[in-house]
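Lecture notes, part 5. Sequence design as translation. It can be helpful to think of inverse folding as translation between two languages: the language of shapes and the language of residues. The source text, in structure tokens, appears below.
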């Protein structure tokens, strides 16, 4: 990657140059030490321009129509005079770290929009299918003036939790399936959601969709309220046919306004930043440990004990950390 100065990147980000915006994100995603150092400086410089977007996490099982929903919702937001950034997390191979990166081709119409930016990011084996630098990428998009940042999960494992931890609104896409409509929906996801959209609703399945809505609302009734005075809405529509999306748009605005009124908006953002701090503390401690010859030896020794199950891995980790802190 050709190294550009941070001033070049900042000017590009602020002027809306998508090519330089992409280069800034590539820099932040890089694991090379020299790139990380430049990325830290870049992120520090753009922080005053961040924080003005609405961050929306979108989840749903494969086949729920996430990409179609994002494209249709993105186009609607642009019609309302907004700028939209899409961070589509692509599943990577755990063996070769290759990525499908297919979302850009799925959102061809949105990609053509001047006020849209789509960034497919490989998970690179990061826990739960959320790219390592998604939070930092989001900050760069905010500095570039994007009003909505849509983060699509791969819909597996811990990805929902991790996306919910970095967004203001968490949207769950549901489709009507056979049998028990609530089967397979984890309680944890239901506790995290702020809005549910039943997608792919046509005239012929509308009655079934309404029954699913009743079931979901009944289930939500027994869960603790995530936000004061907010009852999670269950909306019906079709992203493909552009029905029900305006109501989603309105509910997102309504929910964001309520969070500001409740004084929870900024508090949530602070907690999110604290979680990122905790994450990077772990990363840098591990990096420092591996690069320091005097600590690397006993790190490898305890790691070997754990891998061979000479003792419990958590015990080995505890002993190692105690040694590290004494040192």
């Amino acid at each position: 990657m050709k190294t550009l100065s941070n001033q070049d990147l900042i000017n590009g980000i602020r002027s809306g140059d998508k090519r330089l915006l992409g280069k800034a994100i590539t820099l932040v995603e890089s694991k090379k030490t020299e790139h990380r150092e430049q990325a830290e400086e870049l992120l520090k410089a753009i922080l005053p321009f961040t924080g003005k977007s609405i961050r929306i996490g979108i989840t749903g099982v494969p086949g729920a129509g996430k990409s179609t929903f994002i494209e249709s919702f993105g186009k609607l937001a642009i019609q309302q005079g907004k700028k939209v950034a899409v961070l589509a997390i692509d599943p990577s191979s755990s063996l070769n770290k290759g990525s499908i990166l297919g979302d850009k081709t799925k959102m061809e119409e949105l990609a053509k929009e001047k006020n849209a930016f789509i960034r497919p990011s490989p998970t690179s084996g990061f826990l739960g299918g959320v790219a390592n630098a998604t939070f930092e990428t989001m900050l760069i998009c905010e500095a570039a003036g994007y009003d909505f940042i849509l983060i699509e999960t791969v819909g597996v494992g811990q990805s929902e939790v991790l996306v919910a931890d970095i967004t203001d609104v968490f949207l769950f896409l549901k489709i009507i399936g056979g049998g028990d409509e609530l089967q397979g929906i984890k309680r944890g996801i239901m506790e995290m959601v702020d809005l549910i959209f039943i997608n792919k609703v046509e005239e012929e399945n509308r009655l079934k969709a309404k029954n699913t809505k009743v079931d979901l609302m009944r289930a939500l009734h027994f869960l603790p309220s995530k936000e004061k005075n907010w009852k999670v809405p269950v909306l019906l529509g079709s992203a493909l046919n552009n029905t029900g999306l305006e109501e989603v748009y309105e509910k997102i605005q309504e929910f964001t306004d309520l969070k500001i009124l409740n004084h929870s908006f900024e508090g949530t953002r602070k907690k999110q930043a604290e979680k990122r701090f905790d994450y990077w503390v772990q990363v840098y401690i591990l990096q420092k440990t591996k690069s320091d010859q005097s600590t690397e030896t006993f790190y490898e020794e305890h790691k070997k004990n754990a891998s061979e199950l000479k003792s419990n891995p958590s015990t080995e980790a505890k002993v190692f950390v105690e040694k590290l802190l004494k040192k």
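The translated text above is only one of many valid answers, since several sequences can fold into similar shapes. The beta strands are 54-59, 84-90, 116-122, 148-152, 169-174, 195-198, 234-236.
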